[in-house]
Amino acid sequence: MALDNGKAPRNDRRRVRCIRELGAALHALVSQSRALTAAAAATFHTELQPAAFHIALWLNAFGPAKPSAVAQAVGMDRSATSRLIRELVRLGLIATSTDPSDRRSIVLSLTPDGRRRLEGAMQAKGAVFEQRLASWSVDDIELCTALLRRLLR
Fold first, then answer.
1. pTM above 0.85?
2. Can you give the chain as a three-state secondary structure string?
3. Of 94, 111, 110, 120, whose CA–CA distance to 41 is shortest?
4. Local mean pLDDT, 10-residue blocks, the chain (153 residues)
5. Phi, psi values for residue 9, rounded to 5°
C-alpha cells in the first residue's frame, strides 16, 4: 500500500464511504484509549479521578513545573488542576517545593511513590496494547504508525 501517490483524491461514493468508516474506526480507537487510560488511572490510585493521572503523566514526561504550566499543558482550568494537585500531594504522589527562580511560587514533581505507581499503571496499559498487536507484523505496525502520523500532520 503506497502512502502517497501524489494524485489529488477524487470525491466519489467509495471515497466518502471509506472516510466515514475511517472516522468510525478512529472514534472507536479514541473511546478504547480513554477506557484503557481510565483503567490505568485506577491502577495508579483508586481514590483519584483520571484527570489526576494525566497530571502525573505530564510531570513524568516533562519534569518539575509550576501548577499554572501543568494546567495549561493538560488543558484544564487552574481551579480544577489545583484541586487535583492537592489530592495528589495529600496522597504523597507529587511533592511541592519552592521555585528557586521565584520564591513566591511552587514547583510540582513526582515523588518516588508517584513514579513507582505511574510506572506500574503504564506497564499494565502497555501490556494490553502489546497483546492487541501480538499478531501484527513489524511491517504492519510501521505502516499503521506512518499512516497515523500522516493523518495527524
1. no
2. CCCCCCCCCCCCHHHHHHHHHHHHHHHHHHHHHHHHHHHHHHHHCCCCCHHHHHHHHHHHHHCCECHHHHHHHHCCCHHHHHHHHHHHHHCCCEEEEEECCEEEEEEEEECHHHHHHHHHHHHHHHHHHHHHCCCCCHHHHHHHHHHHHHHHC
3. 120
4. 59 91 95 92 93 95 94 93 96 93 91 96 92 96 95 90
5. -70, 145
